[in-house]
Write a structure and sequence with these properties.
This protein has 413 residues and is of the alpha/beta class. The protein folds into four domains: 40 residues, no CATH class; 98 residues, 3-Layer(bba) Sandwich (FAD/NAD(P)-binding domain); 115 residues, 3-Layer(bba) Sandwich (FAD/NAD(P)-binding domain); 116 residues, FAD/NAD-linked reductase, C-terminal dimerisation domain (Enolase-like, domain 1, 2-Layer Sandwich), CATH 3.30.390. Helices cover 30% and strands 26% of the residues. It is built from eleven helices and 22 strands. The strands form seven sheets. It has a five-stranded parallel beta sheet. A five-stranded antiparallel beta sheet has the order 18-19-22-21-20. Strand 15 and strand 16 form a beta hairpin. The radius of gyration is 24 Å and the shape is globular. The two termini are 29 Å apart. The structure holds nicotinamide-adenine-dinucleotide. The site of nicotinamide-adenine-dinucleotide (NAD) has 27 residues, from helix 4, strand 10 and strand 18. This is dihydrolipoyl dehydrogenase.
């Protein structure tokens, strides 16, 4: 809101934006209250549905038993016909030369609990978390430098055309990117932190000072103290091995989410958990199409995609059609003063079946749902192009891009 006010209020004729400032403590308290309401809501659901909630660390002690080291002391062992593992992932914080203290050198956990907006923030890793949290602090006034080992930002699976455009947009917002660069040292020096970098393929070292360094170089499966392998749960690499019904090599034990295959995303884990519950309770066999799990970067503007990227289609040798429509030509986006970004629709050259949709927009994460529905039901780009969509809305750009893909031209834009 602050960023929007600073960017648009004067032009819109709303006075006073120049005098706005942030009470960061209050902002964080409001965020904490939202988190508490949501997690408290889940506890409420447990009560309603008569789910017993044991607060403690669970350890498998057999195919049908879990022993819990209770947070408030003591141990409790429970037995069950079935067990579902959903232990998730943890931040990889241990670059050999970095020690995270969650105050000056922080992971995403510490970055969500800073006491003040840092004047200078260095972000190590320009993936999902680096862009999301880096851009939040940049919009709150920090001078942000992102150091990324690869030549592209946005993490795994992002379409390279989208990644390039997003880098341009974030650079315009004020973020600095040091691409193809590795961090070789992070050292606390008095009140600040000195970050030393080198070009990824060798070259002269440089250094910069930061008030806070955010380390976000990925997450890894969390299985500490779970005792899974000891009771016979097989792994494939670092992942727990499961069959199509999320059953591990121990038939009574199931696993879902970040500890099994697929992207480490909350909505993917949620759907898998619900499916396991459905298998066990009803014997029905619903399935999840992993090609249709959307990814969203919650930056401003957001980035969202579903299905294949152009890079993937090229490397798989798939012939495709491509249509792109910019938000700059969309009435609602112009009125909203939010014209950055585009929708790109990719379909099979021969059959026109939708293969992938990629969006940069303030509400890309919401617009992508239309594309998910299309892909889930096997739509062609022409199907989306012929859906009647309300005018004036931002979502119409999905229709415009689909028209470009299906017919090579669109009604407007
Ligand atoms: P990431 O895998 O998205 O990005 C890590 C980045 O760090 C990569 O671009 C990598 O090249 C770079 N990197 C690795 N080592 C480096 C080094 N030494 N120096 C410089 N760069 C280095 O990981 P993340 O941002 O930490 O997020 C972790 C995971 O959490 C994501 O993969 C995602 O699954 C999940 N997540 C998702 C969302 C979302 O969906 N909106 C939000 C937060 C987290």
């Amino acid at each position: 809101m602050l960023h929007e006010a600073q960017k648009t209020f004067e032009q819109r004729g709303i006075k006073g934006a120049a005098g706005l400032s942030v009470d960061f403590e209050k902002m964080m308290a409001n965020k904490d209250a939202a988190v508490k309401k949501l997690t408290g809501g889940i506890e409420g659901l447990f009560k309603r549905d008569k789910v017993t909630y044991l607060k403690g660390h669970g350890k498998l002690t057999g195919p049908n038993s879990v022993t819990v080291a209770m947070n408030d002391g003591g141990e409790q062992t429970i037995t069950a016909k079935n067990i579902m593992l959903a232990t998730g992932s943890e931040v990889i914080e241990k670059l050999p030369f970095v020690s995270v203290d969650e105050e000056q050198i922080v992971s995403s956990t510490g970055a969500l609990a800073l006491k003040q907006v840092p004047e200078k923030l260095v972000v190590i890793g320009g993936g999902v978390i680096g862009l999301e949290l880096g851009s939040v602090y940049e919009r709150l006034g920090s001078k942000v430098t992102v150091v990324e080992f690869l030549p592209t930002i946005g993490g795994i699976g992002i379409d390279s055309e989208v990644s390039k455009e997003m880098q341009k947009i974030l650079t315009k917002q004020g973020m600095t990117f040091k691409m193809s660069t590795k961090v070789t040292g992070v050292e606390k020096t008095g009140g600040t932190v000195k970050v030393t970098t080198e070009p990824a393929d060798g070259g002269a070292a440089e250094s910069m000072d930061a008030n806070v360094v955010l380390v976000c170089v990925g997450r890894r499966e969390f299985r500490d103290g779970l005792n899974a392998e000891e009771v016979g749960v097989a792994l494939e690499g670092r992942k727990v091995k499961v069959n199509d019904e999320f059953q591990t090599s121990v038939p009574s034990i199931y696993a879902i989410g970040d500890i099994i295959h697929g992207p480490m995303l909350a909505h993917k884990a949620e759907d898998e958990g619900a499916m396991v519950a459905e298998y066990l309770a009803t014997g029905k066999k619903p399935h999840l199409d992993y090609n249709n799990v959307p990814s969203v970067l919650y930056t401003h503007p957001e980035v969202a995609w579903v299905g294949k990227s152009e890079d993937q289609l090229k490397s798989e040798g798939v012939a495709y059609r491509k249509g792109k429509f910019a938000f700059a030509a969309n009435g609602r986006s112009i009125a909203n003063m939010d014209t950055e970004g585009f929708v790109k629709v990719l379909s099979c050259k021969e059959t026109d079946k939708l293969l992938g949709v990629h969006i940069i927009n303030a509400i890309a994460g919401d617009i992508i749902s239309g594309a998910c529905i299309g892909i889930e039901y096997g739509a062609a780009s022409e199907d989306l192009a012929r859906v009647c969509m309300a005018h004036p809305t931002v979502s119409e750009v999905l229709k415009g891009a689909s028209q470009k893909t299906a017919f090579g031209k669109a009604v407007s834009g």
